[in-house]
Write a structure and sequence with these properties.
Number of strands: 0
Largest sheet: none
Shape: globular
Radius of gyration: 21 Å
Length: 317
């Protein structure tokens, strides 16, 4: 589902570039999702393992900063010039409850960005100290630009803000094109990071060792990773509801891994060192986020069901 979310995002970015120059063209979102899936598959084949990303991590930082700066500046510019906006949450009281719960899963998915600094920080000793420094940096200075884009976008466009913010902004065509291209390229790199555990598992299970360019290893990546990405791309094009997939992913993946599993592992590792109050605190976290995970899963499935009724499969959103 994480893969599907990134493929939909990459396809949306490509479609936005297309519409900037060929508005009213014949190509639809599913076509761009197919192109994005093909590029992701080629990237997965060419990058044999996570450590081989190398310079691409530097490009990833540049792409992220370019998107953030452009989206922030254009949103602020539009917000200053725009008339009064509507900030109310649309819908019935029941739908508002489900939407709010689904949004909480969206948030934990969007801001669960600690994986990369955690991985990078474990390369040199002392591992724990470096990892904690990386995470402290990520969730203080690191989240600031993310919050800036989020709040500036909502302030500028109100409740009419689209899931993909660049669909709202106004500005020079070339600037918007650069922002969309960076969003596309960053999505390809980010997907590879999240898909790498599956790639590594498959490589290990089937005994893939030695040179990445060896015929056996290369053909394995083409068939297995290519097939894996083909399946992900088909699901993405079939149900291209980006916000709904983000909610579902946050509900059944990010909530359990980030909040439930981490608290339980800490309890298991320090069972004899914690006071009763400390143990109670961690168990409260476990149960609270377990309930949130279940509620957000129901909310996300409801959103997907409603959108599936509103839009046909392979919809052009």
């Amino acid at each position: 589902m994480i893969n599907a979310g990134y493929i939909i995002l990459a396809g949306s970015a490509l479609k936005a570039v297309y519409l900037l120059f060929w508005d009213g063209g014949q190509m639809k979102l599913p076509h761009f999702i197919a192109i994005a899936g093909f590029v992701c598959a080629m990237f997965a084949i060419c990058i044999p393992h996570l450590s081989a990303l190398g310079i691409w991590l530097g490009f990833s930082t540049v792409f992220s900063l370019a998107y953030i700066v452009i989206a922030l500046v254009l949103s602020l510019k539009d917000g200053i010039k725009s008339p009064a906006r509507d900030y109310t949450v649309p819908g019935t009281p029941t739908s508002k409850i489900f939407t709010t719960i689904g949004a909480s899963a969206n948030l934990v998915f969007a801001y669960n960005t600690g994986m990369l600094p955690e991985i990078q920080a474990t390369i040199r000793q002392p591992v724990v100290k470096n990892m904690m420094k990386a995470l402290y940096f990520q969730f203080t200075v690191g989240v600031l630009p993310l919050y800036l884009v989020t709040f500036a976008g909502y302030w500028a466009y109100g409740s009419s803000t689209e899931t993909y913010l660049l669909n709202n902004v106004k500005g020079p065509i070339w600037v918007k094109a650069v922002a969309n291209i960076t969003a596309f390229l960053q999505s390809v790199i980010a997907l590879h990071i999240f898909a790498s555990p599956m790639y590594e598992y498959l490589d290990t299970k089937h005994g893939i060792k030695g040179s990445a360019l060896a015929f056996k290893n290369l053909s394995f990546r083409v068939l297995v990773r290519g097939g894996y990405m083909t399946l992900n791309t088909f699901v993405s094009a079939l149900l291209p509801f980006l916000g709904d997939f983000m909610s579902l992913t946050g509900a059944i993946s990010t909530f359990p891994l980030t909040f439930i599993l981490a608290n339980h592992m800490f309890l298991e590792a320090n069972e004899n060192k914690l006071t009763s109050i400390q143990k109670l605190w961690h168990w409260i976290n476990i149960w609270f986020f377990a309930i949130m995970s279940a509620a957000a899963t129901i909310a996300a499935l409801r959103l997907i069901a409603l959108d599936s009724k509103t839009y046909h499969v392979f919809a052009d959103l």
